[in-house]
Amino acid sequence: MKTVSSRNAGAVLALAVAGSAANADTVESGISTEYETVNVLRVADGLENPWSVAFLPDGDYLVTERPGRLNRVTREGEITEIAGLPDVHVDNQGGLLDVALHPDYDGNGWVYFTYSLGDESGTTAALARGRLQGDALEDVETLFEQDRRSEPGRHYGSRLVWLDDGTLLMTIGDRGVEPERAQDPADHAGTVVRLTDDGGVPDDNPFVGDDSVLPEIYSWGHRNIQGMIVHPETGDIWATEHGPRGGDELNRIEAGGNYGWPAVTRGRDYGTQDQFDGSERVHDDDMIEPVYEFLPTLAPSGLALMTGDMFSAWQGDLMAGGLRAERVRRVVLEDNAVVHEEELFYGTVGRIRDVREGPDGALYLLSEEDEGGLYRVESAD
Predict the structure, then answer these.
(1) Which residue has the higher pLDDT, 245 or 314?
(2) Is residue 242 flagged as an active site residue?
(3) Is 106 in a helix, a strand, or coil?
(4) Staple partner for 174: which of 98, 190, 193, 380, CB 3.0–4.6 Å?
């Protein structure tokens, strides 16, 4: 079992009851964007490769670190490690990944998280949950594990999103070594799966009753989705997906849809810059084309939909984080089409792993660094 440790993040962010932030640790103030003027503040630093953030009802944050730590971060920047996690296999992109609260967290205390399960001979993307009691998880159980282990270290996907009906979406990457697995519906690699809150299969999943398709699968033909949201009004599911060299996509996820990877891609082979081996650049009729291709390369991770009043000009816009690009792309949608983009915060916090709209209406960013941090973007007005 992990020991519980407490760290002072070295960055203090005092939040008033109204949700505003003091300027004690301002990274940059008065940033002018096309329609909003904002301040960027550091909530906490000293986080090792942070991957995901969730918001606790008391105003604290849960933050995962890929090396296998789940932390409570207070509004004052103090970091306390949460005990009780299962064994996490850490290798390259694998480790402790996403974290999300159950929709009825106030009633049941369940915290859900994804992680790489296995050993050096093979790992899978797995989903587990535990009840948060103080600074420990109790009643921890693994709910779901993808069906086939792969060489550790690449393309776990692992974003979690709750649907309004109480079911849970989890993304699973193609695992990198054998991309063609994403075109095999009898394999969880390269899919979005839809589960009940106890890890079961919903009766209305699109392939239930089809013995040639794993019943958990909601959509397939994905490379590595690491950003996903559900629109609270329309129910539309939006996802950002890593391409190879180029080919980073924004997709609208449909039940039962095949999104083409690796049979079709707009990306290029890493080594040769040639068209990806065995692929075409035009989708077949039975495959769904991306809504948008991010150019230049974004390396997308983390996706938020702006709904609050703090940034009125951004309401309804997507905020897509970028790892390699070290920026956020504000994406304006009309009738499910991208009509405008704006680049934000280039180089301000480094490689961006997660992007969330907080319950206070602010925008939160996690930087994917050995000495990463949690940042809050608030209105300067």
Answers:
(1) 314
(2) no
(3) helix
(4) 190
